[in-house]
Amino acid sequence: MLVIFRLLRPEFHNVRDGIVYGALGGVGFNWFEVALYVAQAYAEKGVAPFALQLGWRYALFGLGGHAMSTGIFGAFLGIALRTRRSWVRILAPVDWLVLAIAAHMVNNALPLLASLAAGSAGEPPPAPDAPDLSFLDAFVSSSLLELTIFLPFLLITALALWRSSTRERQVIREEMAGEIGRAVSADEYQEIVTDHTLRTRRIDPTRPRASAALVNAQHELAFCKRRVRNEGRDPDRDLLTVAWREEIWRLRAAF
């Protein structure tokens, strides 16, 4: 519920947020599911397969399975919240919810397909679990399997992140151009213009926390201005926009 609330806040502004907060919901469910299956195995067999379950459920460092499915849905919920096209606002979440469900169905169908393949070859079906399997063995084998099965979905997620990052920097450049001398200095704006993927802009490297807070406030101001502008209102008369500008002044005075 907290994740859904965060996604629907006005400050939510891009696809990256959707992926991150959506994936967090999947990670939370994953953690609950690990505990459930460990407890179930212990009740049935007297053995708690922690290594097996943690290795399986957190394959690909948690990027597969539930986290990937909910991250995909979150990404396109972000598109729906950002777009001004009514048909995209309606269809994007529905279409990509179906895609996320399909990805999870593929994952759940794998044990059945493995059993059918073994049966057709005259071999006994694979054991549903192996409590003596080490965490590393379970993690590596499951990661390779999920990387193969989910590669198209992972590529879609990576593409969405890249496109969101490009669009995010474009919005910051456009909106902060009118803030030179107010919320950003001329030198800071030049750094905004030359910013690129996988680079973290810092105003003062010797004070990383204060610098990060100021950069984040500047970015939030840009996104807030764009949201207000898209709604057909004047950003300079929006209370949240004014509040972010005042926060920037406060943070700069603390340097």
Keywords:
disordered N terminus, single chain, 2 domains, 255 residues, 10 helices, mainly alpha
Task: Report the average pLDDT across residues.
Answer: 80
**Dominant shape:** elongated
Structural Rg: 23 Å
Helix-strand category: mainly alpha
The span between the termini is: 37 Å
Element-by-element helix/strand order: HHHHHHHHHH
Number of helices: 10
**Largest beta-sheet details:** none
Helix content: over 70%
Tell me the strand percentage band.
Answer: under 5%
Count of separate structural domains: 2
Flag low-confidence runs. Answer: 1-12
How many beta-strand elements? 0
Overview of the molecule:
This protein has about 260 residues and is an all-alpha fold. The protein folds into two domains: about 1-125 and about 135-160, no CATH class; about 180-255, no CATH class. About 75% of the residues lie in helices and about 0% in strands. It is built from ten helices and no strands. It is elongated.
Per-chain topology:
Elements: H1 2-7, H2 15-45, H3 50-57, H4 65-82, H5 86-120, H6 135-149, H7 151-176, H8 186-193, H9 208-230, H10 239-253
Short summary:
This protein has 255 residues and is mostly helical.
